[in-house]
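Re-run with default settings, no changes from the original entry. Doing this only to confirm the output is reproducible before filing.
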Amino acid sequence: MQNPFKKTNAIKSWIAFFLFFTLNMIVFTAIVFLVQPIWYDINNFLINALGLEWDWLVTIIIISFILIFSGIFLSVYYLKRFQKLQKFEKLSKFSISLPHKILLLIFFIGWNFMLYVLVDEGGEELTIIGRQIENLSPILYIILIVSIGLSISVSFRHILKFGRQWTQKKDVKAGVLLVIIVGSSFLGIFLPLMGIPVNVLEGELPEKPYLMAHRGAAYLAPENTIVAGEVALEWGAVGWEVDISISYDGVLFLCHDTTLERTTNVEDIFPTRIMDDCTSFNMSELQQLDAGSWFVEGDPFKTIKDGFVTQYDAENYRGESIPTFAEVLTFTGDNDLYLNIDAGRPPADHPYYDDYYEILLSQLNASGLGKKILINSDNPLAETMTTFGGAGTVEEILASGRNMINTHHGLTNDVFRAYDQANITVMVWTVDTPSRFSQLWCLGVDYVYTNALHLLVPLIEPTWVISKANYLLSWALLSGGSILLGIAGYILLSKRNKLVEKKS
């Protein structure tokens, strides 16, 4: 016969696991929503990993919600049943379904493995989680302070009780509990002063950052095409970033990926060369490809569905060709745009491997764009251009002689503030959400690369911004009001309890 104590502990352990599973799924789902700006990249990663075109992220979110509700249901169901049978001493009849145990264990392991892969593959892009939380922090602070105020009506009685036990009886346990209650309440109330969001300004709001179109207006037109540059110009971008490769016969052209599979119809035109490196094609072959229909048929960013791209414009994207770099330079110069160069060197066995940079820089110099060209290069041929470097200390950047820095947007607020105070021109990539763009705006960033011009151009001010004086005043009023509300609740509860005691 099974030891009843062991059985009781086993039951409690499984119920605790169900509760932990539920909390784990809530955290997992919250993280998925916080990384919303990189959903497209995550979904592409899953498609490539699993080899099946599908909206995997939406599927994962739906299953995650089902798992959360399943965890809540199983926790409540088994806890109530356990308490009921324990009350009547009938635990021998209690059992937890084996399928429930197995299924939740499988999903627990599977979903946490996915979380591990996300963290491992996400790299610096996962800094968006902290920035999203910072953007939501005022709402979280309000919930926290109001919760503390409401809990005072209950906790104040314990504070008085433990205080008496500590002062009168020197009860160490009471003293520890007193410190925990008072300390946590104090910490919660003053947390908004310890983590002031970047949208809280001490001075004037900086000028709105200039927008650079990443691969052209990549959410509104087929990336790295002339039409993507035209759409970027229409939306008011001051420049665009392009990815430059070189064909097998030595012609510079635009392409981001190493293969042509994602952004062209290479499967139809050259079915045996789908996975060949794009630099293994001659320019005459590249110009046979359709670099626009994939955008129309897949609507990868839902901008056609949402009406940001009209059906008429979308249909005109069909048949868009891969542009030569010469065409890009002509378009850029004719429209007085900045041009950011992302140079991708061909494989080592390519006939122009050694000459690639010289060909690129020579063509840039011949274009006459001069300082309108933004490039990361120490080559003497780039002296006529605007050269940039990566992030570093203020001293390192000033000593480098570079004109500006180009860095990921995930640097800390303090670093961005230091750059702004040192008058260092800062460009950041790639920001596609109004909330993060607003934070960088408040930090004084000068240029922002984006795929989502349609979301950032309409902003005439940050999504939210407040002066530090008004922020502190709001905190004082909210904290004071919540504390007074809690004390009033404590007084009312005390009076009610006294009346109940008199009646009894």
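The two ends are 49 Å apart (CA to CA). Residues 127-203+465-504 form one domain.
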